[in-house]
Structures are given as C-alpha cells and as structure tokens.
Amino acid sequence: MFARAYRKALITVGGNATLLRAMAFLWKAIPYRPRRGVTFLFIKAVLFEKRLLKIDEQTEITPIKDLGSLAYWGFPKVDLDRFILTVDGAVDRPLSLSWPEVQALPRTDRQVRMDCVGGFRNNSVMSGVTVSHLLDLAGVSPQARRVVFHCLDGYYVSLELEDLREGEAFLASITNGEELPKFGFPLRLAMPGKYGYQWAKWVQRLEVVTDGRKGYWAQLGLPDRGDVGDVW
C-alpha cells in the first residue's frame, strides 16, 4: 500500500512540468560543489526508501496508466511524415532515416526495468531497434568514445559507447504494446541498468563523439555514468 502511494505521488510530481521546473531551478541555484553533496544525500535517501518499501521486489509489468514519465520541457509535437533519425559525428557512413525506414529495421523485444533517480520504477515490455545495429550501419570510428542522444524537446544525454553495446541499448517505439507519446514515442532510448534520466525520450539524433562530454543532468551534478545506485 505505502509503496503504491509513494509511486503515485512521484508520478504526480513528474507529470507537473511547472513543479518540476521550480524544483530544478532551486537545485541548480545551489553552488556546484554543495549541489553534488545534496544530490549524494538525496540519492542515498531514495535508495533507503526503496529498500524500506521493497520497491526492488516489484517485478510485475506496470500498467500503462501507472507508467511514470517525467516531462521537464513538456511534450513535443511529432510529425511522423517529416521525422528523420540521424546518426552522424565520428562515423564513416552518416545515416538519415525516415520513419518508414526506421520501422523496417530489425527489431528487438525485451522486458526492461527503468528506475527513476527519484524513486519510482517502471517494468515494461518494449520493442525497437538496437543502438548497436544503427552504429554498425553507420560505421563507428575507432576513436569514438560516446554517443550523444539529442531529443526533439531539446534534452540530451551522453553515454559511453562500451556501455551502450554491453547493455544492449535500443531505441524503443512500442511500450507495453502501444505507441505512447508521453513515454517518448516515436523513439525512446531503453538503457537497462541506467537511471531514468539516461533513457532519452523523443530521440532524433545519435551523435558519435570522440570526447568525454556529459549529458544535460550529468553536467549539472547527477552521476555521469548513471548506473542505478550511482551517487557520483
């Protein structure tokens, strides 16, 4: 009971873009070094609460109505007739794929778990194209270190190339059998083992880079690697 109430409270907060912006503004107003300390304490507290509420024991598929999805910048409008997925940067063969071309690529179907750094969890079945397949089509440079995922709402995350391949990351278009705009349709990065802020929504571009640049929240103080349990 308490776990469900806790989850619903978090989802309610996540659905309120104004409240999210206010909370983020206050967090970013803290100077960087103490902000890292506050973040450390917050993550530790959330991990303790999850153990206390036995969140880790929740393995059933999350109903669509209960799927948590934070929308800090709101929901972008997507025109599938004009949608183009780009893979560029440190690659031999840059890709520009229309939506029908994306749909024609080989697909993977997996049951995955997404843990929000704020505490809630989604267990879902997602379907899409693997990141490794896209990178192989583009021909990644030997000097490549990371992939920056750029989103239609202006958000971006940066992940190590090795993590993406080893974690079998994929760009999902179907969640629990449906196309869900609030959950990132047409393409959402599914990255098992990473916190939810690394699961970029509404992905439109994969930029392969040779440097160590960080994603939006990571450069502000959240864990760069973003593995569930990370505090730095």
**Annotated CATH topology:** Sulfite Oxidase, Chain A, domain 2
Helical percentage: 25-40%
The gross shape turns out to be globular
Strand order of the largest sheet: 2-1-9-5-6
H/I helix tally: 7
CATH architecture: Alpha-Beta Complex
Supply database-style keywords.
232 residues, alpha+beta, five-stranded mixed β-sheet, globular
Please provide a written account of the structure:
With 232 residues, this protein is α+β, with helices and mostly antiparallel strands. The protein has one domain: Oxidoreductase, molybdopterin-binding domain (Sulfite Oxidase, Chain A, domain 2). Helix content is 31%, strand content 24%. It has helices spanning 2-14, 17-29, 32-52, 99-103, 131-138, 161-166, 216-220, and strands at residues 84-89, 95-98, 108-115, 121-130, 146-151, 156-160, 170-175, 188-190, 203-209. The longest helix has 21 residues, at 32-52. The chain is globular and about 45 Å long. 31% of the residues are buried.
Task: Draw up the topology in text.
Blueprint lengths: L1 H13 L2 H13 L2 H21 L31 E6 L5 E4 H5 L4 E8 L5 E10 H8 L7 E6 L4 E5 H6 L3 E6 L12 E3 L12 E7 L6 H5 L12
